[in-house]
């Protein structure tokens, strides 16, 4: 589904990603962990196609397409979804209208029939129940005046509505209390299917008690320096990152 080969990226001529290699297959959940400043958010921003980052080397193939050739909107329409650490607020645009537009644009791009009003409302009902999002929040302006927990829940709701092939959650657990964490994780787990994949970026092991990853990768200084299974996350929780830094710098 996603194949990243030797990806290098810079911001303001400073190289942040220094040769990322990563293969993600449909049905898999990958966790990316690593100390602050390693390049985790840079990797998600580069995949999303944010302009401030310059890809200087490497390839990214997403479900048969050259991802780096696509503009950010088309990446989303191809089925890439990014949930950010700090969700944006869109005053004056209701959640519902935001999603209606996104979904019809996506269907049009993919050459599919538009959703009828009835289908759309049925989806809203089903997906908001899934993430236990108050129906009132669904019709309010996107994230405006939402609490931290509500924003995260809303992100998972948006994700459920957009039915991405690949969802990347960048520290979507930061600032969540245990209940909200459980709801986010439940949403992610319920959406899991053999046809889609999830990348969970997290600084802490905590989220991985709820979303069990098939693979865990450590990103440090712009490279994936270690990969393993969920046991690696437990080891990191116990021992921190210093031993990894020592291994890399030895
Ligand atoms: P992480 O998400 O792993 O904490 P980031 O990807 O946010 O790491 O940051 C990686 C590195 O890139 C850090 O050293 C950070 O200071 C640097 N960086 C991020 N954004 C910018 C920017 N806009 N300008 C300059 N440096 C940046
Ligand atoms: Mg950070
Ligand atoms: Mg980050």
TrEMBL record:
Keywords: ATP-binding, Nucleotide-binding. Gene3D superfamilies: P-loop containing nucleotide triphosphate hydrolases. One of its GO terms (molecular function) is ATP hydrolysis activity. It comes from the Bacteria. CDD domains: ABC_FeS_Assembly. SUPFAM superfamilies: P-loop containing nucleoside triphosphate hydrolases. Transmembrane segments: none annotated. InterPro entries: AAA+_ATPase, ABC_transporter-like_ATP-bd, FeS-cluster_ATPase_SufC, P-loop_NTPase. Residues 2-246 form the ABC transporter domain. Belongs to the ABC transporter superfamily. Ycf16 family. This is Fe-S cluster assembly ATPase SufC.
């Amino acid at each position: 589904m996603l194949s990243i080969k030797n990806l290098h990226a810079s911001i303001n001529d400073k190289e942040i990603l220094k040769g990322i290699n990563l293969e993600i297959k449909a049905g898999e959940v990958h966790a990316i962990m690593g100390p602050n400043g390693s390049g985790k958010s840079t990797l998600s921003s580069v995949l999303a196609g944010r302009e401030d980052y310059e890809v200087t080397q490497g390839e990214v193939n997403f479900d048969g397409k050259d991802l780096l050739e696509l503009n950010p909107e088309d990446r989303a329409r191809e089925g890439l979804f990014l949930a950010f650490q700090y969700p944006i607020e869109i005053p004056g645009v209701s959640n519902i209208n935001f999603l209606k537009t996104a979904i019809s644009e996506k269907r049009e791009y993919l050459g599919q029939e538009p959703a009828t009003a009835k289908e759309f409302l049925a989806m809203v009902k089903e997906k908001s129940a899934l993430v236990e999002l108050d129906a009132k929040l669904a019709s309010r302006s996107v994230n405006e005046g939402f609490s931290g927990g509500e924003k995260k829940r809303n992100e998972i709701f948006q994700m459920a509505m957009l039915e991405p092939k690949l969802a990347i959650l960048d520290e979507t657990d930061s600032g969540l209390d245990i209940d909200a964490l459980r709801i986010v994780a439940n949403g992610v787990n319920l959406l899991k299917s053999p046809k889609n994949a999830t990348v969970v970026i997290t600084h802490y092991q905590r989220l991985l008690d709820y979303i069990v990853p098939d693979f865990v990768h450590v990103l440090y200084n712009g490279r994936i320096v270690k990969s393993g299974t969920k046991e690696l996350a437990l080891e990191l929780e116990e021992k921190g990152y210093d031993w990894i830094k020592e291994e890399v710098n030895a």
